[in-house]
Write a structure and sequence with these properties.
110 residues
């Protein structure tokens, strides 16, 4: 039963992590007029989203090096920032990349 329990936990973590990855893409690329912001500064929103996602990915893939998960998630952040160029009203920025990467580092190491 212990192995089933571990498999079940991994399935939940993986499903949650990939949901967050796709949610980040959706929220990063929707046009500005469809955005709903929290009262938090945008940088903290980025850091929180990427921190939670990194933490879930580390739990979901325990055999993968943490630095690899953090690096890939930071590169993903850069891709999302670049793709905002093609989304109406969105503006890519280095600050978004830096906040997201910081969140990924914090969440991955936590």
């Amino acid at each position: 039963m212990g192995a089933m329990s571990r498999k079940h936990r991994l399935l939940i973590f993986r499903s949650s992590a990939w949901f967050c990855v796709f949610l980040i893409a959706y929220l990063s690329l929707i046009p500005e007029n469809l955005e709903m912001r929290t009262p938090a500064p945008p940088g903290l929103e980025h850091a929180f989203a990427y921190g939670v996602t990194a933490g879930l990915l580390v739990l979901a893939y325990p055999v993968q090096p943490v630095w690899l998960i953090i690096g890939l998630l930071s590169a993903y952040s850069g891709l999302m920032e670049f793709l905002q160029t093609f989304s109406p009203g969105r503006h890519p920025g280095l600050d978004g990349l830096l906040w997201s990467s910081a969140g990924a580092v914090f969440g991955g190491l936590l």
